[in-house]
Amino acid sequence: MNENAIEIRFYDLLQKIESYNEALNVMFWDLRTGAPKKAVDQRSKTIGVLSSEVFRLKTSNEMKELLDQLSIQEELSVKTSAAVEESMKEYKKYEKIPEKEYAEYVMLQTKAESVWETAKETSDFSLFAPYLEKLIEANKKFLTYWGYEGTPYNTLLDFYEPGMTTDILDRVFNSLRERIVPLVKRIAGSNKQPDTSFIYQTFPVEGQRKASEFFLKELGYDFSAGRLDETVHPFQISLNRSDVRVTTKYDANDFRTAIFGTIHECGHALYEQNISADLEGTLLCSGTSYGIHESQSLFYENFVGRSFGFWKRHYETLREFSPEQLNSVSLEDFYFAINESKPSLIRIEADELTYPLHIMIRYEIEKELFNGNLAVADLPRVWNEKYEEYLGVTPPNDAKGVLQDVHWSGGSFGYFPSYALGLLYAAQIRESMLKDLPDLEERIEKGELSGILAWLSERIHQYGKTKKPLQLLMEVTGEELNPTYLIDFLEEKYTKLYSL
Amino acid sequence: MNENAIEIRFYDLLQKIESYNEALNVMFWDLRTGAPKKAVDQRSKTIGVLSSEVFRLKTSNEMKELLDQLSIQEELSVKTSAAVEESMKEYKKYEKIPEKEYAEYVMLQTKAESVWETAKETSDFSLFAPYLEKLIEANKKFLTYWGYEGTPYNTLLDFYEPGMTTDILDRVFNSLRERIVPLVKRIAGSNKQPDTSFIYQTFPVEGQRKASEFFLKELGYDFSAGRLDETVHPFQISLNRSDVRVTTKYDANDFRTAIFGTIHECGHALYEQNISADLEGTLLCSGTSYGIHESQSLFYENFVGRSFGFWKRHYETLREFSPEQLNSVSLEDFYFAINESKPSLIRIEADELTYPLHIMIRYEIEKELFNGNLAVADLPRVWNEKYEEYLGVTPPNDAKGVLQDVHWSGGSFGYFPSYALGLLYAAQIRESMLKDLPDLEERIEKGELSGILAWLSERIHQYGKTKKPLQLLMEVTGEELNPTYLIDFLEEKYTKLYSL
């Protein structure tokens, strides 16, 4: 078989995997947006059958054979090289685990998620603890198959953020902690505090829906290649490159959920909508990592959506959607209120300044679980101590503490750091953007957002997974991950807001 | 391998096929109800990949081996026997066609459908004719692989209505023609005609939506195992047994489209929602034939939804949804108007009395195409002559004549008769129901529909595909297909309506 024929077979196989993934994602989207409740049982079986098929294809002898043959070929295109690397990574991740062991692990995940739900509802960590122990044990066993460089936890980090290590994270998180913790304390002691009472008045859901559609269009979201729906937990999902959907949640008594949730998911969607068409059906047609993906959603949410210029332009429009609530609130008071910073217990409700502290707590705990000797039984105590230390708050119960997040119940260890990395990347990317677009803030104020999207698409979006996150960061910003940009931005913004 | 193990493998394979079918149906539903327009290209590829996989599984060596082993086993359960028979039928249908020939045919279908669309838009039969010729030639070629009993067309009929033959159809259609054609003529000559002008006034779409939901609930549709959406062409689709969805169309200037369309699709959905849970994932968990399926939709549409008692009960409710349009129309005038019978050109707009004549025309043409020597070039002429003969109307162009239906462009020959069979079955089933529920009309008038649904579910729905249509008809009604019941019903109803 000639080289060309091998490549054709390889891309056919990837297209097949991507087709199954598309079918799975349509079913996932459907379950979240409006499938009838009785549909779930059989749908779960169906999802199980197709997921197994994807697993089988990714670890098949055919895949192995094609990867072996392509690996020895010279002069592969950038695209094919990246597709081979990505497929090899997936192949190696799964083929090393004995099939039976993996099947048991999948069952454990399902069971653990359902136990976690009950444990959270009843705030009873002891229910969840034995499952969490098993999940950690299973991952430690997998780590003996996978191996690691530096520390075991690095391998887990690498699944979500290729190239990321505890060395890098320790360095940047230390810098963050040193300057963010004191800033949070100064804010708490400030005499100037925002009046946020208007936020909790009624913002009609229909107005929130219109506002969400308005902001999506304003930011450059292509509605002919996507749609907006309502779900309990907002998300973005890419069914294919021309079908990138977002969801949001309308809380009549807190419009921030919908407005900033929509802008956040829009940032994810703009990434997916602007990947090169050439990458469709190759495993490369999605964001390159969880952290880089989050950098795009947070760029739009924080640096665009929470900026003064954005609201100078759009506050009147928002008022039209909820005049009773907003007519007596000035632009300045509105801006201050939506940027309130206050230590809190729940990660997903945290403001942009305290958010990284929530992540650092989880990072330190995960690192100790895998690299050190932290025992599951000690988690609630350690969790609460760290919340007191970093944020000055102590969870009244485990539901509002160690049980709040779903991630561990699904065995997703190493995922959390990407949320903070998203913030750090976004700030560093913004600094680089300012060199090309020094009038960035004016553009936002004038509603000229297309140049911003074009800049991001040209340097980041189009490449999909063909560039690794740290390589991309270096190419876009000319330096390694540097936390200074985020810290400086936050210090300047919050010093001014709170007149520190 | 013991017998039990073979059966387990067999059912695993069927579950896999059904899982792919579920994924395909979710994607199909999504495309029709709200997928963004740019999604279509990649989605089509994905659907192609999964469809090929279903084809491959149905004709796989594994399927052959399992069917061979199960066929020689004694004492298979009713369910397993039926699943083997169904799988064998599918296997034989496809495995005899050389793979290349089948792939070419699938491409021809896709192309022909798109050419048909243009031909219909421009009312130019000559565009479509060469494709129709190729489709017929391909099916004639396939018939040499499939073989036939009696006449070649019987094999095509059998795909949609197992056991159906031209002998049976000739017999019942002759009886229908003999008595329906004169009845239609007498109606045309009657001095008493309904005033239908109010129908074309505005019925607000929101009211139609509420009415559609109301009637679905009233008829026994389970919304926790389904949902209602809006599409250009209404349909019912079963994703799984507990996720049976219906769609309808809201025409602000003709409420009949939504009301009777919804009731029709509801009849289909009630069938699917009430199949025995035991049949899920076995290829048997759907209606046993196109004709029996149609009998359920038409039972509800015509015998419930177009009855006087139904409107005696619900007319006030409908009025609330559109008071301006309906307040000055009496119940009697409303009932007469929705039962207007008038020869027309378009099948899907035809009333219940003239509808079978549209089907008979198509049946006679298809039969001549496959059993006789009718040439494609002669179709427009023959079509128009038959419309003049049976209905007294002549299409002004081919768009309103021979090009009106999509079926032939997809190669669906033998499908049309099931629409008329649905009417015939429904009337015969109703006659049988009257023996158990002599107060049928009173129940409808009182809104006591649960007993009717229970009767149909117990005798028909629950069996899914485990009973063949003609066997089912015999068991439910105690006799062969007998057109008298439909004819008597129609004669009585229309004689009274039009004071003939």
From TrEMBL, chains A, B:
GO molecular function, one term: carboxypeptidase activity
PROSITE patterns per record: PEPTIDASE_M32
CDD domains linked to this entry: M32_Taq
Native species: Metabacillus sediminis
Family matches, as Pfam families: Peptidase_M32
Protein origin, superkingdom: Bacteria
Residue runs in coiled coils: none
Catalysed reactions, semicolon-separated: Release of a C-terminal amino acid with broad specificity, except for -Pro
Keywords on record: Carboxypeptidase, Hydrolase, Metal-binding, Metalloprotease, Protease
Enzyme nomenclature, EC number: 3.4.17.19
Similarity field: Belongs to the peptidase M32 family.
InterPro entries given in the database record: Peptidase_M32_Taq
Function: Broad specificity carboxypetidase that releases amino acids sequentially from the C-terminus, including neutral, aromatic, polar and basic residues.
Protein name per its UniProtKB record: Metal-dependent carboxypeptidase
UniProt keyword annotation of Hydrolase present: yes
